[in-house]
Amino acid sequence: MTARQAACIVGILYLVLAAGTIHLTSNGRDIATVWPANAVLLAALLDRRPGAWAGVLGAGFLANVAANAAMRGLSAAPLLFSACNLVEVVVAAALLRPAPRGEGLLGAPAVVGRFIAVCGFVAPAISGTGGAATAWLLFGQDLRASFATWLLSDGLGLLVFTPFLHALLRGEYVRCFAGKGWRRRAEAAGLQVLTATVAYGVFFVAVRPLLFVLFGPVMLATFRVGRLGTQLSVMIIAVIGAVATLRGQGPVAALAADPREQAALFQVFLAVLLLTCLPVAAALAARGASFASLAQSAEALRVREAELAHLAATDGLTGVLNRAAFRDAALRAMRSPARAPVSLIALDLDFFKQVNDRHGHLAGDRALVHLVRVLRSDLREHDVLGRVGGDEFLVLLAGTDLDQATAIAARLRDGLRRTPLVLDDGTTLLLAMSCGVALHRPGMGFEDLVHAADMALYREKRARRWEAQHA
User: What residues pair up with 449 in beta bridges, in sequence order?
Assistant: First the structure.
């Protein structure tokens, strides 16, 4: 929607509300006792930068002039009343900006207090001075009575209607509904149906004034749905109550015979209802935000603890388990009958010192990382790999007997032999490793098992050196 289209929609809605309330609550000369039209402009301005207010204010001004001219006739009054209304809206918008985006206009208790002060007194009092003077000068109305009527009608109009219209224009109701599961949607809809049913009973069925009953469903909507539920419930009550009061039915019509007094009383009730429940909704939202923040902090702490535990358990260069963490994993496997038999492979790179001496320690580090990558590609998912020394590694094989472990060791040697390492300068290193295999037997501790695998590793190295010397 373009800015011009939005301004046109605001202007049309303002015209309808302004003309309707003047017709229903004014004799054409005095000030209307109900004035929700300014809430339309205020709701539209709160999410706009002051530099973008001109179009909305212009549309509101023209709509105000047209409504006053149609209901009160052509005179200076429409221009003066319109100017006063625009001053009111601009003052309220300036004092309430910026509207909180994450939590809505009335999402925090402190914001509720500021909203009540600005819309209920400050802005209407400023505009009411000019509006009452206009009614006194042009229509001969009592100055004090006109000011009181303006302050009451405009203040209550802003308090009651702005929150709902602001949330509606921002699309909060659509996002809220779309973000809920079907159970929460059904619950929210059911609460509004309950509010409408109770309101119908209070205004059309009950023979006694039972306005206090309406606090029940509205408060229930506040606790279950939040601020948006409160605002929508109050609007539902406003529509049903307005229809009943205009037809001379319901508790408000029973309290006063004058339609203007009825309108003022009904608006006061709506404001009390809204401003009683909204601080509760804001407090609940603030508490919910605190709980959410605590949950996020706890989750971040758990993630950090997991990261620290991972760092403490792994080798910084290769990413495999360090000796302490590998020992813990081995002890768990050795103590679990379900994981028997348990075998261990001890391995290291052949002539690793020569790699460091000829190509530098960086190449030696690259060789170790390359070795781990090759080993992981050939090991099973549940096999455990750890680095226990410079180029010394251990592989824990749970559920693997000695023959199977020996075959796995041979496969690992062949895999490394078939996968040369290419250094950054293009040098190709053909790496080789030696392996020793041992089987865990009853009564053996971790160090005993490692010693047995090391002895097997040394025997293999001696056998390979003897073969090389006598080849």
Answer: none
